[in-house]
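B., you asked whether I could sanity-check this one before it goes into the benchmark set. Here's the sequence:
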Amino acid sequence: MTHLHEHRPPRAGTGETLLSTKIFDVERRTYALRDGRTIQRDVVVHPGAVVIIPVIDDGIVMVHNFRIAAGGELLELPAGTLAPPEPPIQAAARELEEETGYVAATIEPFIQFYASPGFCTELMHIFVARDMELRRQRLEADEQIRVEILPVERARRAVVDGTIRDAKSIAALAAWFLTSDARP
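And here's what the prediction gave me:
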């Protein structure tokens, strides 16, 4: 069982690295099936990421983030890639401050899920942040991020009305809205 503090992607099969980038590798892995046959799959090996649900007063701190792959700006929860061996909770605190300018007195683990387990090892670690103080954004040179605080009920509607089109934000918020902890 994977625990909330673990952040290494699982390793299965043997393989060769086809591509190495700053953030991820692509490996061609060979797996042995139960019946003895072998198959090959190309797998994106990713260090994992954090997603933060920052709760403030009666709202949720969201970001408008320019995404090249999506061809524009998306409304998202603050998030970022782990920098191993950085623990996920430390990455959550770092990303929250970098992207929103907020520092949280409380950051608690919530859930984990794989972003796209059919081809990628990226495990998303979701945290809930509370008791926040506004300082200043510390964006990376290539980031174009604007902050918006959505009232909780507006965020709930945004999950289903198409306003939020980012899967990690939809999954994290939908799970949070299902819990008794979904309160400001």
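One thing to flag: The longest strand covers residues 102-114. Otherwise nothing jumped out at me.
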